[in-house]
Amino acid sequence: MIKDNHILLGVTGGIAAYKSVELLRLLKKAGADVHVVMTEAARHFVGRTTFEVLSENPVITDLWKDTGSSVAHIDVASLADGAVIAPATANCIAKLAQGLADDALTTTFLAVTSPILVCPSMNTDMYQNLRVQRNLDLLEQDGLHILDPDEGVLACKTVGAGRLPEPWFILDRITAMLNPKDLKGKRLLISAGPTREAIDPVRYISNHSSGRMGYAVAAAAEKRGGEVTLVSGPVDLAPPPGVGLISVETCDQMARAMLDELPRADIIIKVAAVADYRPVHQEELKIKKTVGQTQMTLSMTENTDILKKIGELKTDQQFLVGFAAETHDLEVHARMKMEKKNLDMIVANMVGGEDSGFQSRTNKVKIFSKDGNFRDVPLMEKTKVADIVLDTILGHLG
Ligand code: PMT
């Protein structure tokens, strides 16, 4: 959503202005054309030359001096596909809320018609002040997007809310803001990652799932306006912004979480790699190595097939998608799973290779639908596969 878009970056006078340099760099790296407008106060923190060099565009700081054109601020405002103010001071927020236009930044932003993301950053007491909160509410009512500040130690040594979120996170929120909201009003229940089945207090049975594929689907669905609940096994990934996360470990816990959430879901996508069996007994104490014993047998019992259970319970209004991880006969096994588990669609991928399936950043999938439709998706980033999976679901929902 960022590539080839024109983004207007507003910078106001807060200590966090240094982070907007990194935000600009990330926007450029993502392929955006960025125009920067700064307040006079922002120039006390970061020089305009830095923004000018990195953006490769003239920076507007003064309506009368900078640009050679008396309407340059209107030009950049009209050009913008999206706009962001990071950091946004209390003063700037108050002026925006009142529609004031007494400097280059507020005048320019008053002329912006594309979506605007405002990132407040200030001392905690200032941020929590009723007048600031009231102004933020007004901006939200006017349709501007507000990014809550992070909590932590601030420049003034206060600990609390007021830190500007990290630039990568702001970039993620700009992307979300610009994404078409074709999943608006839909509630998605998504599972991701592996499950772990304990053998004893220190050992477990699991698999290689990193959670990447499932997290990519959850993140993409949220950016497209869906209300997403992600039930996740243990992974090393940060939860996607805006997604409700339920962390679980075992198949039993995942089953309980999924079945609890099921009645509220419109679309269910089961990306998780669930252990089909678990040890019959979970030993309370660590199993010790016995001298002379060269083999040991572990008795296993079948786990609940969560997807199959959901397939039995789902209503006609719910759309159910499974994933199939195969090492051979991909199509045959995938179609069998779709049939047996009463799925509307199945996304099949080969596992065991380097660039698709478990762990990799990329995947190559075949999508089969109950109505006979088939889509062959070549190797690409899991984030892109996620969008294609969602496109295909929406295609079916009409
Ligand atoms: O997490 P990554 O490293 O990014 O890897 C992604 C992935 C390879 C895990 C993913 O793309 C994938 O293929 N997920 C499905 C893994 C799997 O368990 O496949 P399966 O063919 O064994 O199961 C079929 C379906 O039944 C799956 O939707 C699974 O969630 C579900 N299932 C399986 C067993 C069980 N007890 N309960 C289930 O719900």
Commentary on this structure:
This protein has helices at 17-29, 48-55, 72-79, 90-98, 104-110, 124-128, 130-141, 167-178, 212-223, 251-261, 306-313, 330-340, 382-397, and strands at 6-11, 33-38, 82-88, 116-120, 145-146, 150-153, 159-163, 187-192, 197-200, 203-205, 227-232, 244-247, 267-270, 277-279, 300-302, 319-326, 345-350, 362-369, 374-381. The chain is α/β, with parallel strands linked by helices and 398 residues long. The strands form 5 sheets. An 8-stranded mixed β-sheet has the order 12-11-8-13-16-17-18-19, sandwiched between helices. The chain has a 5-stranded parallel β-sheet with strand order 2-1-3-4-5, sandwiched between helices. A two-stranded antiparallel ribbon has the order 6-7. Helix 9 (212-223) crosses helix 13 (382-397). The longest helix has 16 residues, at 382-397. The model has no long low-confidence stretch (mean pLDDT 95). Bound molecules: ligand PMT.
